[in-house]
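Record 1 of the preview.
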Amino acid sequence: MQNDKNCTQIMIRKASGQMEPFKVDKLKASLRNAGASEDVITEIVEDISAWVNDGMNTKMIYARAYSIFKRLSKTGASHYKLKNAIIELGPTGHPFEVFIGEIFKQRGYKVKTAQVIQGASVSHEIDVLASLGKEQILAECKFSVKQGNSVSVQVPLYVHSRVEDIVDKLREDERFKDHTFVTWIVTNSRFTPDSIQYSSCKGIKLMAWDHPHSQGLKDIIEREKVFPITLLNSLTKAEKSTLLSYGIVTCRQLSQAEESLNKLDLNPRKQSSLRRELEALLKSKPLAAR
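->
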């Protein structure tokens, strides 16, 4: 049935609204990237191939694949859920800003979020300010709750002018005379080609879900194990919201924040399940090493 359906070119709807052929190889690749075993991949692909029909959207297909994956491998399914887990940090963009700050902390930077900094002309709010030695990173975070969205060229144009105004002011301070200032724009979606081209010309660093190659947000999360707490299957949505309100956005933070864990008032069985899931995620090998 799988081969028959491929031959008839079943058309499915992407998050952007565009139609594309359903491709078994693409489904296999996404499962393999999440660390699924070949047996698990075969079972999921056979089910989806027999079930999928014209006009279905990728969200429906993902939901069914995730449900089967979760039944077969709870920890593996967590990796497969990663993109949606980032979206679940919303609806506001602040938890995403804190999450990006945690990525820079993992790399040794001192980090502050939501900082108001005086520029030469006016003051500006910077989402993430990261410092390491004489390097200063000023990062703008563009969070999207909708898959398929793209960051247009207007964003790097605007961010570039704001950071230039801030740097002009900082250069007046002797302490920053020999510092390097780097502008970053980070998104959980994508950048348009114009955004990428303009940013390249202006020296702006970009990080999107899958950009740049092997250094995108997904790659970094997996490689450096900066997993969002929304990935956890052991917690309810309300419990995750409580943790987010405390500024706990990553599994690593949660594993090191005993007092926050206690505030959830989990029963011993659930707390034990949560600790096992945290340990499994934080000790899992990077995908490239699997």
